[in-house]
Write a structure and sequence with these properties.
Belongs to the nucleobase:cation symporter-2 (NCS2) (TC 2.A.40) family. Azg-like subfamily. With 435 residues, this protein is mainly alpha-helical. The protein is 66% helix and 3% strand. The protein starts with a helix and ends with a helix. The relative contact order is 0.21.
């Protein structure tokens, strides 16, 4: 059955190879099952429900990717956009998490419509590649900063605004140990390095008494009730001027994350044909389903995972890899008691290393072109300093068309960029007037 549907022999693979590839991809991305509840839990959302929502929508979208698009690409809630959801929208702007989920739902509907009518490519292409790279790199710095703060490595300082945390604190030392272990594993190119690093750090914490023992390891799947459908109830408060830039940012970041990840994975795996991805529409639809379905279940937007490249590296060539990854994601739902073990000191190393990986996008920016460099720099720096992804994007998208105009290159700027610039000017004005 698998052979005929996925054409395994034709692709030079087998059920055994695809199974191993699916397991490898799962292990490489499994950290999100514990990191996402930690990040979204900061908003007051039920961590157990978020855990289930994360695993369930990741399984649904990834299996769709495998069975329909027939690619070995995994999909799950993305790091970076979940930080924007939690720290920028809910905590920073004071928006209720139910309303924020409604914002994701609205963005998901638009996302789905743009995918169906094949408009996504037009919008993506309107934004300069340099700014796309700046957004990805800036999100990397923002994620790393969250990890450094949550892990206690850096803290507020009255004299210098920011400084080192209390490194004599045993829990901070646990974070440092986790960072060094995870770095070493990743440097050695160990499959599932981030996940293994989290497990190792958790074990050290348990042995030293810094982390409490879980009541059990396996249990029934927790209830989704605390988050399920809350996006619909939040719709009554979502159509405001304050939420327009939020919805736009959900859309933009999801655009860039998915497009960049898919292209990167496809290129490294040799799936591109004449620099295009066959069945691209079906692959993009898997992500659209993930974003829309995730909002209804109770989680932030999804994206294609670059960790899929680990499964591809050991031979995964067809959608059967993603099918197996999805099955492992479903099985993981029975391990919710381990959430108590995965503290912020355990997840911090994962956030830091993902931040490093995302920062690699900065090399794609043309730093010799000042309008491009200035807009990119403000985007990158604005995110961690304002503790807001949307604020960083706003700065870059306002400055870029302005500098292109004053240097006589206004005609090279796509009209969509001017529209986005105006929207973000309104966004900044609203933020400032609302204190």
């Amino acid at each position: 059955m698998f052979e005929r549907y996925f054409k395994l022999s034709e692709s030079g693979t087998s059920v055994k190879t695809e199974l191993l590839a699916g397991l490898t991809t799962f292990l490489s991305m499994a950290y999100i099952l514990f990191v996402n509840p930690s990040v979204l839990g900061a908003t007051g959302m039920d961590k157990n429900a978020v855990f289930v929502a994360t695993g369930l929508i990741a399984a649904i979208a990834t299996i769709f990717m495998g069975v329909v698009a027939k690619y070995p690409f995994a999909i799950a809630p993305g790091l970076g956009i979940n930080a924007f959801f939690a720290y920028s929208v809910v905590i920073g702007m004071g928006v209720k998490w139910q309303t924020a989920l409604a914002g994701v739902f609205v963005a998901g509907v638009i996302f789905w419509l743009l995918t169906v009518f094949k408009i996504r490519e037009t919008i993506i292409n309107a934004i300069p590649a340099d700014l796309k790279a700046a957004i990805a790199g800036g999100i990397g710095l923002f994620i790393a900063m969250i990890g450094l703060v949550d892990g206690g490595l850096i803290a507020a300082n009255k004299s210098t605004i920011i400084g080192w945390g209390n490194w004599s604190d045993p829990k901070v030392l646990l974070t440092i140990a986790g960072v060094l272990i995870t770095f070493a594993l990743y440097a050695r190119k160990v499959p599932g390095a981030i996940f293994i690093g989290m497990v190792t750090t958790s074990i050290i914490g348990l042995v030293t008494g810094l982390i409490p023992l879980p009541s059990s390891i396996v249990s029934g799947v927790p209830s989704l009730a605390p988050t399920f459908g809350q996006a619909i109830f939040g719709l009554k408060d979502v159509f405001t001027w304050q939420m327009i830039p939020v919805i736009l940012t959900f859309l933009l970041v999801a655009f860039f994350d998915t497009a960049g990840s898919l292209i990167g994975i496809a290129r490294s795996g040799g799936f591109l044909v004449n620099n295009e991805l066959p069945r691209a529409g079906k692959a993009l639809m898997a992500d659209a389903i993930g974003m829309l379905g995730g909002s209804l279940l109770g989680t932030s937007p999804t994206t294609a995972y670059v960790e899929s490249s680990t499964g591809i590296a050991i031979g995964g060539r067809t959608g059967l890899t993603s099918f197996f990854t999805g099955i492992f994601l479903l099985l993981s739902l029975f391990f919710s008691p381990l959430l108590v073990v995965v503290t912020s000191n355990v997840t911090a190393p994962a956030l830091i290393i993902v931040g490093i990986l995302m920062a690699s996008n900065l090399s794609a920016i043309d730093w010799n072109d000042f309008p491009v460099a200035a807009a990119s720099f403000l985007t990158i720096l604005g995110m961690p300093l304002s503790y807001s992804i949307s604020d960083g994007i706003a700065l870059g998208f306002i400055v870029y068309p302005l500098l292109m105009l004053v240097t006589g290159r206004g005609k090279k700027v796509h009209p969509i960029m001017y529209a986005l610039g105006l929207i973000f000017i309104i966004f900044v004005y609203i933020l400032q007037t609302n204190g």
